[in-house]
Design brief:
By secondary structure, this protein is α/β, with parallel strands linked by helices. 32% of the residues lie in helices and 29% in strands. The protein has a six-stranded mixed β-sheet with strand order 6-9-10-3-11-12, sandwiched between helices.
């Protein structure tokens, strides 16, 4: 079943075409990756799906569970079960980790904080009373943000560069959290240019200059991504690959 559909979406920012007639279908209950080089439009797509204010002036439509969400704001999309984990997690001076995790949790039991922290490999006694501020490392904040997402039990979660700025232990825990989200019934979309993150997906989309270039099983996209999708200075729009037609997980 298709949970999220991007229908012929284009977005122009400061006279630059960031997304170019993009159409994609994301299947419910799977881990799917959107890959491409830096500047391909991946993070822009995630922000647009979440409905952030600077990304609302696009053409085309976005359907969530068959209904248009184009005119919904961030809060309204969040209430539908859509959430976005930032590449650089936010800091909240004065807000304790326990408060942050419980803020949008389905289960408001304080024991849920400990369960979620343990799930991302953080010792509850050390972290539940810490503040979500600059005293935490980037990797710690990423894991705490994931703990809060696990507690939300979202329908759709967008993870923007989940391996950015984290150490090996943290990324292993993040991968475990991704598996748990899938097992819990969430649809996960990984925004990445990392082959290691791509390996964790069931299906993948390759975009370049805001255009869908190819899509398919992860092994197929991995081969193309590793061999041909390299950083380059040119600004030309690639031709649409004949394989990049409508389709999804089969």
């Amino acid at each position: 079943m298709v949970i999220l559909e991007i229908q012929d979406v284009s977005l122009q920012v400061n006279s630059s075409l960031i997304l170019n007639h993009l159409s994609m279908e994301f299947q419910a209950g799977y881990v799917q990756a959107v890959v491409g080089p830096n500047g391909a439009g991946k993070s822009t797509l995630a922000s647009l799906i979440m409905g952030l204010p600077d990304y609302r002036q696009h053409t085309g439509d976005i359907l969530f569970e068959g209904k248009s969400i184009k005119n919904l704001n961030v809060d309204e999309r969040a209430r539908l079960g859509i959430t976005l984990a930032w590449q650089e997690p936010a800091r909240f001076e004065g807000l304790k980790v326990s408060q942050f995790i419980l803020a949008a949790a389905k289960n408001k039991d304080k024991k849920e904080v400990d369960r979620m922290l343990e799930m991302v490999g953080l010792e509850p006694a050390r972290y539940r009373s810490r503040e979500v501020d600059k005293t935490l490392s980037g990797g710690e904040r990423k894991r705490i943000e994931l703990a809060s997402i696990l507690a939300m039990r979202p329908r759709l979660v967008l993870l923007d560069e989940p391996d950015s700025g984290v150490d090996i232990e943290a990324i292993d825990r993040i991968f475990e959290a991704i598996n748990h989200l899938k097992q819990d019934g969430s649809t996960v979309v990984l925004i990445t240019h990392s082959p290691k993150v791509l390996e964790k997906a069931d299906y993948a989309f390759l975009i370049c200059h805001g255009l869908l270039v190819d899509q398919g099983e992860t092994t197929k996209i991995m081969e193309y991504f590793r061999g041909k999708c390299l950083p380059c200075p040119h600004q030309n729009v690639p031709e649409i690959n004949s394989a990049a037609v409508s389709g999804g997980i089969r």
